[in-house]
Amino acid sequence: MPPPKKPKKSGGTGSHTHALSVVQEFMKESYYAGRRAKEKEDEARKAGEKVAQGMEADINEYMEDTEGWKATIQELKELCPKLEELLAKIADAEETTDELCELVDSLEADLLRRTDGRILRVGAELHELSGRIQALQLENQQLERNLESSSSATEKQALEKTITSLRADVEGKERTAQLYKPALEKMKKMIDSEKERVGRRNETITLWRNKCENLRAKADEDKAMIEKEKSALETQALELNQRIREQDEALKDSQTRLEDCETSKGQLEESLTEMKTSIATMNSDYSEGKPTMQAQLERLKVEHAAAVDANRKA
Predict the structure, then answer these.
(1) Which UniProt keywords apply (predicted)?
(2) Is 87 helix (H, G, I), strand (E, B) or coil?
(3) Dist CA 88 CA 306 (whole Å)
(4) Residue 272: CB atoms within 10 Å
(5) Whose CA is closest to 141, among 122, 162, 124, 127?
C-alpha cells in the first residue's frame, strides 16, 4: 500500500499538531516496516536459490566426472586381463620358439653327422680299391723286371707264371672295379644330391632360425610395449583414484555447505515468519486502532477548528 499522505497543516494548538504527527509517524513506520520485511524475504530467498543452484551444479558436475572416471576404470579393469593373456601368449611363443630352435639345431647336427659319415665311408672304399689296384700293378712291374734280369729258365718260367697270375688278378680286380664303378658313380651322385639336400635344409634351418629370432625380437618388443602401456595405465588409474578422492572431499565439503545453507535458510524462514507475524500484529493493531484514531483525529480536527475560531474571535 502507498505511504499515507501527510495531513495539511493549519493553525492550532501544539497538542493537536503533535497528535497528528504521532498518527502520521505510526502509519509511516508500519508501511516501511512491511516493505523492509518484504525486501529481506526476497533477498534471503534469492540468496538461498543462488547457493542451492551452485551446489546443484557442483554436484551434477561431480557426478558426470565420477561416471566418466568409473567408465575409464572399468575399461582399465577389462584391459588388464587382456594384457595378462597377451603376455602369457608371448611367453608361450618364446618357449615354443626356443624348442623350435633346439629342434632345428638337433636336426642340422644329425644331418651333418649322417652326411659326413656316408662321405667318409664311400671315400674310404674308393681309396682302398684304388690302393689295391695300384699295389697289384707295382707288384706286376717288379716281377717283370725280375723276369728280365733272371738267367735261369726255371726261374723265368716260374716268374712268367706268377706274372700271368698277377695279370689275371689285376684284370679281375680292374673288371671288379669296372663293375663297381657305376655303383661308385651312383654313390657319388647320391652324395652330391645329399649335399645339395643338406644345403637346402641348411637354408631352411637358417630361415627358420631367422624367423625364430624375429619372433623373439618381436615378442620382446611387444612385451616391452605392453609393460610400458600397463605402467602408464596403472599410473593413470592411480591419478584417477586420487582425483576421485579429491572430488569426494569436495563433495563432502559442498554437502556440508549445502547443509549449512539449509540451516541458514531455516533460520531465515523462522525470522521471516516472526517478522510476518509481527507485521500482521502491527497491521491488526493498526486496523483495530484505526477507527479510534480516526475518531480521535476527527475530534482533534473539530477541537482544532473550534480553537482556531475562538482565537479569531478573541
Answers:
(1) Coiled coil
(2) helix
(3) 118
(4) 16
(5) 162
pLDDT for 8? 46
Rounded CA gap, 96 and 88, in Å?
A: 12
Closest CA to 50 of 258, 271, 268: 258
d(CA 153, CA 235): 114
DSSP code for 6: P
Q: Are 236 and 77 in contact (CB under 8 A)?
A: no
What is the C-alpha to C-alpha distance for residues 272 and 252, in angstroms, rounded to an integer?
29
Spatial separation of the C-alpha atoms in residues 248 and 56, rounded to whole Å: 15
How many angstroms separate the CA atoms of 8 and 237, rounded?
Answer: 82
Domains of the chain: 14-313 (1.10.287.950)
Output the pTM of the full model: 0.35
Range of lowest pLDDT (8-12, 70-74, 201-205, 272-276): 8-12
CA distance 278 to 267: 16
Determine the Cα–Cα distance for residues 209 and 201; give it in Å rounded to an integer. 12
CA angle 22, 23, 25 (to 5 degrees): 65
